[in-house]
């Protein structure tokens, strides 16, 4: 791990743990390098929180200090605008007596030490058993489903109304989807998934990034860690393990929990029941922090070259399959279907 990445993670741990900062003085160039890496990972504002905790003589100076401040203010302004839109949706939903659940970013932001430091791209929401009424409430009754949800804009904010919560290509995803929906009867009054259901949903959502494009954003791992830390007293580790066994995601649960604890400086060892493959932990950490993802195989390659390229890629990422929701038979089916009709099962 290079020095810039180490510096970024040290500052992130200060921001997310609230512990007294103990870091050496950075040069202007080191602050600049950390800034651009933090932008790449979407954590500039979180690190700016840590900067504000540092003694004045350790804080960045000059133009790079202004860059940190301006980026943080943009994130906070956007978050506050999203909050206003969400409050508008909430007032309409209450007036209509229509229960809803807030998903992912906006629901997790409140668990961070400073909620408006968690940059959110859009508002993810679902209206259990009332998808069509939800579209009407959001002002787009004719919205078409795009994948798992319909998309619409409210006062410049993108809102996604979920018909389903996860991709449903594999048995593990289908089992997780059924488990989460079952926990929404009745719909919780606080508009959040119950902790155990949210645990299942967030893990599967995180793993979906690996399944779809073999990438895993740092922010998703931070979300996972912040969620576990906030709900340690509500989640029974053995019950979590039992559910993960049923879904078939024990290895992914253990590895991502291990890395999340490392990134946010929290001990999650009670949740890890089983062995962590250290070589896989090193590979996954590198995948998250380097963002060096494998590019898709071009569709216009001649058939022999395409077969060779796909075989080479599968060999390169074979270790990842231990942490994906697909079984060997499902992957074989996916390969066959994707070869003849790539749009059906998005393996790349």
Beta-strand residue percentage: 5-15%
Shape: globular
Q: Give me the secondary-structure category.
A: alpha+beta
The biggest beta sheet is recorded as: 5 strands, mixed
Number of helices: 14
The tally of strands reads: 5
Overall average pLDDT? 87
Distance between the termini: 27 Å
Which features characterize this protein?
single chain; 348 residues; alpha+beta; 5 strands; globular; disordered C terminus
Describe it.
With 348 residues, the chain is of the alpha+beta class. It has a domain at 168-180 and 193-348. The chain is built from 14 helices and five strands. It has a five-stranded mixed β-sheet with strand order 1-2-5-4-3. Strand 4 (149-154) and strand 5 form a beta hairpin. Residues 342-348 have low confidence and may be disordered.
Compose a concise summary of this entry:
This protein is α+β, with helices and mostly antiparallel strands. It has a domain of 169 residues. The protein contains 14 helices and 5 strands.
Task: Spell out the blueprint of helices and strands.
Layout (H helix, E strand, L loop, with lengths): L2 H15 L10 H14 L2 H10 L9 H34 L4 E3 H6 L13 E4 L4 H7 L7 E2 L2 E6 L2 E6 L8 H12 L12 H19 L4 H13 L6 H11 L2 H15 L13 H13 L12 H14 L11 H13 L8
Parallel strand pairs: 2-5
Antiparallel strand pairs: 1-2, 3-4, 4-5
């Amino acid at each position: 791990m290079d020095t810039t990445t180490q510096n970024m993670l040290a500052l992130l741990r200060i921001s997310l743990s609230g512990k007294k900062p103990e870091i050496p003085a950075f040069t202007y160039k080191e602050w600049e390098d950390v800034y651009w890496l933090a932008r790449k990972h979407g954590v500039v504002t979180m690190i700016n929180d840590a900067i504000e905790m540092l003694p004045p003589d350790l804080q960045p100076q000059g133009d790079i200090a202004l860059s940190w401040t301006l980026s943080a203010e943009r994130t906070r302004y956007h978050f506050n605008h999203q909050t206003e839109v969400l409050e508008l949706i909430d007032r309409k939903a209450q007036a209509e007596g229509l229960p809803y659940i807030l998903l992912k970013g906006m629901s997790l932001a409140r668990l961070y030490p400073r909620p408006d430091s968690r940059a959110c791209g859009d508002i993810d929401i679902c209206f259990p058993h009332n998808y069509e009424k939800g579209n009407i409430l959001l002002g787009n009754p004719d919205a078409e489903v795009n994948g798992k949800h319909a998309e619409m804009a409210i006062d410049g904010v993108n809102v996604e109304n979920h018909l389903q919560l996860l991709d449903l290509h594999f048995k593990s995803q289908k089992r997780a989807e059924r488990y989460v929906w079952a926990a929404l009867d009745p719909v919780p009054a606080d508009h959040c998934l119950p902790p155990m259901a949210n645990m299942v949903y967030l893990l599967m959502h995180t793993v979906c990034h690996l399944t779809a494009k073999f990438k895993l954003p740092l922010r998703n791992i931070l979300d996972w860690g912040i969620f576990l830390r906030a709900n340690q007293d509500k989640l029974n580790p053995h019950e979590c393990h039992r559910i993960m066994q049923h879904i078939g995601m024990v290895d992914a649960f253990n590895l991502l929990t291990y890395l999340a604890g490392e990134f946010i400086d929290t001990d999650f060892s009670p949740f890890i029941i089983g062995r962590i493959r250290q070589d896989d932990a090193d590979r996954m950490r590198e995948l998250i922090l380097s963002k060096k993802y494998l590019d898709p195989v071009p569709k216009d390659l001649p058939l022999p070259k395409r077969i060779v390229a796909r075989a080479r890629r599968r060999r390169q990422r074979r270790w990842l399959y231990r942490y994906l929701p697909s079984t060997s038979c499902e992957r074989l089916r996916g390969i066959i279907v994707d070869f003849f009709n790539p749009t059906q099962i998005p393996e790349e």
